[in-house]
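Private note to self, pasted from the team thread so I don't lose it. Backbone tokens:
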């Protein structure tokens, strides 16, 4: 999972292959060149972020896109672990999920998510959402530097 450190890195934590492909395509369709690293479950995500095992030397992401409904370790658990870890808590996290459940929304913000977005099943709308995320978070916002 080596990445070009001159480009921003987006860490996509998503188990649905179709959504992974669509989000990657949406990111490719923008003018900003970025690296996309994918984890398909919560345990793999935390191993990557903590640079454990096969992920030793992994690049710290500039932005995390997190699905809530993940196998092995739920996205809510991943969010809580990241936001309580001093080495990781400053990485911006956007929950990008199909859930529109108010409890999920409140819980995510209680856990200090930076933004909560419900995925659209409309392809054009999903592309618009992903391009907006990339434009705001990687071109407009000032992100914390690597520690």
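Design output:
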């Amino acid at each position: 999972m080596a990445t070009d450190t001159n480009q921003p890195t987006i860490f996509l934590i998503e188990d649905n292959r179709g959504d992974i492909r669509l989000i990657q395509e949406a990111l490719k369709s923008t003018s900003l060149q970025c690296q996309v690293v994918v984890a398909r479950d919560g345990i793999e995500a935390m191993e990557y972020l903590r640079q454990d095992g096969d992920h030793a030397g992994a690049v710290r992401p500039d932005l995390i896109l997190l699905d809530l409904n993940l196998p092995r370790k739920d996205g809510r658990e991943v969010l809580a672990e990241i936001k309580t870890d001093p080495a990781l808590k400053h990485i911006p996290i956007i929950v990008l999920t199909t859930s529109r459940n108010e409890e999920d929304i409140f819980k995510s913000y209680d856990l200090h998510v930076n933004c909560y977005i419900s995925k659209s099943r409309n392809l054009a709308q999903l592309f618009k959402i992903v391009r907006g995320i990339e434009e705001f978070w990687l071109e407009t916002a000032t992100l914390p530097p690597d520690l």
